[in-house]
Design brief:
Blueprint lengths: L6 E5 L3 H11 L4 E5 L11 E4 L1 H9 L3 H7 L1 E2 L2 E6 L5 E6 H4 L6 E4 H14 L3 E3 L4 E5 L6 E4 L4 E2 L3 E4 L6 H7 L5 E13 L7 E7 L2 E8 L4 E9 L10 E3 L1 H7 L5 H8 L4 E8 L7 E2 L2 E3 L14 H18 L3 H30 L5 H15 L1 H6 L2 H4 L7
Parallel strand pairs: 1-2, 1-12, 2-8, 5-14, 12-20
Antiparallel strand pairs: 3-7, 4-7, 5-6, 9-10, 10-11, 13-16, 13-18, 14-15, 15-16, 17-18, 19-20
């Protein structure tokens, strides 16, 4: 279809929504983003933009902004959580010199994308809480909490984990608790430390940390297995003491970080299937609305960026909306399913118990020393994939 002046409404001003808004606007579409919050902001969390996500940002003309807002990781280190000894080091700067692994604050990525969307002519309307989505008519129909109605030519649901558009396409979600919870927090960073993403692994738990914002802040995400249920969501406060107690047996470096935690967010990790239906009529979904993933491969934002590019490209390649949406789903489902499964597998690998844990760590040490290149190339299918060149 010709995107010139095509009317598109995007629900949600997160990574997926803002990225697809810019991608479509650059192709001539008239794009409006509806966001329920009173301001576009993200607080208290870091994220990683791997080469596959960075390729999209560069193709959208935001490569320089990405470099300015992020830090390039030099390496990834897997460590024994209790002793702190190194199990595996992936030297990204040496083994992948042409590819950037960017560490950044989520708020900085949102700001970058919001600026890019507005510069491309996108209208962002705040305080637009959607109460109902109806896909039964010739056009999608939205009703806001204030009673306003929208009937766009194309509706894109980038409305996250509890997407109204996904529910309209697929029925009520049926996620299940993974018996894992995660804390996230940010602390001041020690100046001059190497730009390394560290994974400290223990029995039934692990902690990931890396510097960001020019080395002034350190992001922490800590995961623990537990039987009791915790509500799904990102906005549950917890006592930092609970986090410290969960990792009290870990090495001094981790304990030192956790002693500095002023406040912390806790959320239960639920597994969602990749959506069976991604579109109907003139409505579709992308990002977490289509394929929520556990945070064990750091691919949530990257998959959203890939979706945004592919959706805009598919719509521009076809003479009608339905053809574009059909190709979009066909191209994205196999890859997203593979990424979601790989993230599920990582949770198991990080939480091994004795004696399997010691055997696995020994194998990782030997493999990384004897064949460091193949160890990193295990993920070529993920990081080396460039949707903008497909």
């Amino acid at each position: 279809m010709s995107l010139k002046d095509a009317e598109v409404t995007v629900l949600g001003a997160g990574v997926a929504g803002l990225a697809v808004a810019r991608a479509l606007a650059l192709r001539g579409a008239d794009v409006t983003v509806l966001e329920q919050a009173e301001a576009i902001r993200e607080v208290g969390a870091g994220l990683q933009i791997s080469p596959n996500g960075a390729a999209v940002l560069r193709a959208l003309g935001m490569g320089d902004a990405l470099e300015a807002a992020s830090m390039r990781a030099q390496a990834v280190e897997l460590r024994n959580g209790v002793g702190g000894d190194l199990v595996l080091k992936l030297d990204l700067a040496r083994l992948r010199p042409g590819q950037g692994y960017h560490l950044m604050h989520r708020a900085d990525l949102i700001d970058l994308l919001a600026t890019g969307a507005r510069d491309a002519g996108v209208q962002i309307r705040l305080l637009q809480k959607i109460e109902a989505v109806d896909l039964g008519g010739p056009k999608p129909r939205l009703v806001t909490a204030q009673g306003a109605e929208y009937t766009p030519n194309l509706l894109i649901g980038a409305d996250g984990l509890h997407s109204l558009v996904r529910a309209e396409l697929n029925g009520p979600a049926q996620p299940f608790f993974t018996n894992q919870v995660a804390w996230r927090t940010v602390i001041p960073a020690t100046p001059g430390e190497p730009v390394v993403a560290e994974v400290h692994m223990g029995e039934g738990r692990h902690l990931v940390s890396y510097p960001m914002r020019g080395g002034t802040m350190r992001n922490i995400v800590a995961v623990e297995e537990r039987k009791r249920w915790v509500q799904e969501g990102w906005n549950l406060r917890d006592d930092p003491v609970d986090l410290r107690l969960a990792f009290a047996s870990f090495n001094g470096r981790v304990r030192h970080w956790l002693e500095q935690v002023p406040d912390v967010w806790l959320w239960g990790l639920f597994r969602h299937p990749v959506a069976h239906t991604w579109y109907r009529g003139h409505a579709t979904i992308l990002g977490d609305a289509a394929h929520p993933t556990l945070p064990f491969l750091a691919q949530g934002a990257n998959m959203a960026l890939e979706d945004a590019w592919v959706l805009a490209e598919c719509l521009s390649r076809h003479s009608n909306v339905m053809g574009g949406l059909a190709e979009y789903q066909a191209r994205r489902v196999p890859r997203c399913c593979r990424v979601v499964q790989a993230a599920n597998n990582n949770a198991w690998a990080y939480h091994l118990r004795s004696p399997i844990r010691e055997i696995a760590h020994l194998g990782l040490r030997l493999g990384s020393r004897l064949l460091p290149g193949p160890t990193l190339r295990r993920f070529d299918w993920l990081y080396g994939y460039d949707v903008t060149a497909a």
